[in-house]
Amino acid sequence: MTTSLSLVGFSLFALVVTAAPGPDTLLVLRNCLRGGRFPGIATALGAAAGSLAWAVAAAVGLAAALQRWDAAFTVVRLAGAAYLVFLGVQSLWAHRRGAPARTEAPGGPADPAPAAGRAFGQGLLSCLLNPKVGIFFVSVVPQFLPDGHAALSTTLLFGIIDAAIAAVWLTLVTVFAARMLTWLRHPRVHTAMERTAAGVLVVLGVGTAAETV
After folding, report:
1. pLDDT truncated to tens, each residue of the chain (213 aa)?
2. Reduced to 3 states, what is the DSSP secondary structure of residue 180?
3. How far is the C-alpha of 210 from the C-alpha of 213, rounded, in Å?
4. Which end of the chain has fewer CB atoms within 10 angstroms, the N or the C?
């Protein structure tokens, strides 16, 4: 496979995987809903940085070793699941039925907007605690490696491409959501969206914890 075909093929595959809704997309939407465009973009950049970190780990063999070491893989998977459940339960508690927060304007004390640094950290941690990202690089990247090229440098290049695609796609999601903030911040819509996103995060976390590897 030639270098150009490898790059195009991997880029298209990475775009399809990135566009599929997952925890990163939910976190971006949630933080955009709470604080507007900048927290959403910060979350997107954090998720992209996490993806790049997994690419580096895969390039040096850490992701492959983690995949083979069942105990370590399980610890990372369960930690990621617990983090998703924590975020979901935290949101559900803040918007519990009958709580005063239901009548507060979004962005008020009961519904604080995350700072950019915190939003970035949430996106980063969510991706780092998702070992499936590492498996993606370990299992998928070798299929796109061009003949005669060093695996290390090419994997790092693919990681940069994947991180860039993730950053651009999630930023576009943020921009689209930000344009709808006036409607999304209507109290009833806002509460429904928060509860829905929180519930999905909990379900994703429980599903991740229940998976058999």
Report:
1. 557 778 888 888 888 888 877 788 888 888 887 788 889 899 999 999 999 998 888 887 766 655 565 666 666 667 766 766 776 776 666 656 544 443 343 344 345 667 888 899 989 988 888 777 877 777 777 777 776 666 678 888 888 999 999 999 999 988 888 877 666 565 665 566 666 666 666 676 676 667 654
2. coil
3. 10
4. C
H or E stretch including 130? none
Residues 6+ apart with CB under 8 A from 45: 120, 123, 167, 171
CB 14 within 8 A of CB 140: no
pTM: 0.67
* Identity of the amino acid at 123: G
